[in-house]
Amino acid sequence: MAVTQDDPTVGTAERILDVAERLVQTRGFNGFSYADVAAELGITKAGLHYHYPGKAELGEALIARYSVRFAEALGQIDDTVRGAHARLAAYAGLYAQVLSGDRMCLCGMLAAEHQTLPQPMRSAVNGFFDENEAWLTRVLAQGKSDSTLSYDGSSRDAARTVLAALEGAMLVARAYGEPARFQSAAARTLASLAVS
Amino acid sequence: MAVTQDDPTVGTAERILDVAERLVQTRGFNGFSYADVAAELGITKAGLHYHYPGKAELGEALIARYSVRFAEALGQIDDTVRGAHARLAAYAGLYAQVLSGDRMCLCGMLAAEHQTLPQPMRSAVNGFFDENEAWLTRVLAQGKSDSTLSYDGSSRDAARTVLAALEGAMLVARAYGEPARFQSAAARTLASLAVS
DNA sequence: GTCTATAGGCAGATAGAC
DNA sequence: GTCTATCTGCCTATAGAC
Description:
Two copies of one chain form a homodimer. By secondary structure, chain A is mainly α. Helices cover 73% and strands 0% of the residues of chain A.
């Protein structure tokens, strides 16, 4: 994701999202404050409230932008990568990119804090997972139909399993500060779907 | 885990852990306060500080007790369950039990908040994962040697993948409030290790 | 062991000037 | 759009009585 924090052509609202996004992905929604964001941008807390009335609205905006960007990345994969297995590898690569910035998936982090979130944020988090599941389901079904992938049961259940495995791999890899742990687990997960 | 909260034979220190544990597993370490625990136990915040000087010490005590109990449960499996596959299923059952109380794995939750935790808690969280990995590694190696399990690469890497997959499955299942999502993902993960 | 009382700080949020 | 100033409430933590 682009660093817009020092780009004068980017509006304050976007730069707030950039800083807040990083803070949520590294510290959690309950682990950062308006003061943290304001200090980093060199403005005051009151300035933030002009752009986002409350933390809940800021949170919703974060998930909305993250979901759009992720959907765009998935569209990019559809357009540029051929073959179900290669697409899954590219999908895992998106996660690896996030992790390389010492970040957790935004919605994976928020999933942990789910019970403490305002309702609109909860729905948005699940919506993100739903979109990922739908994309994965399509790719998996494609791979099954052209016999480049093999798995039992529904594509949807397999998609859910892949999503959960990658989120978990990020979670643990980040605790150790070892992105290689993610790479290994992701490779294994995808390998389990390869034709035998 | 036993409910000691209303048992007069159980000391206050233990009951504090019971309440705090549930709060951390459901809301996160940054999502609960001494006031929450005190109110639920009917004592004052000052009373808590007598038993645990600060939130950091309380957190360390939580992980320590959780790790001991988990290790005991693993020992129980070793003693009562035969066969690598059945042991893995029992292991996943431990997670399912936690999830059935709408809780996340204590250390999975703390892993998300890792960057905000005091150093001793960070080490303890990773220690919990290390113990789990060691146990899983043993079970997987056993299954491979007696040909009841099949997987490529090192047992340690396979163990890490299983651990991460189960933690991720809990994380996502909890966001949806659907334990069945965990069951499905866990069953798939174990099935991928079965002999073909 | 548990209480009252209180400290000092930070949280999210608002009013109103510029 | 961003500021200063301020509010209210909650946070972790401590001192000292009982």
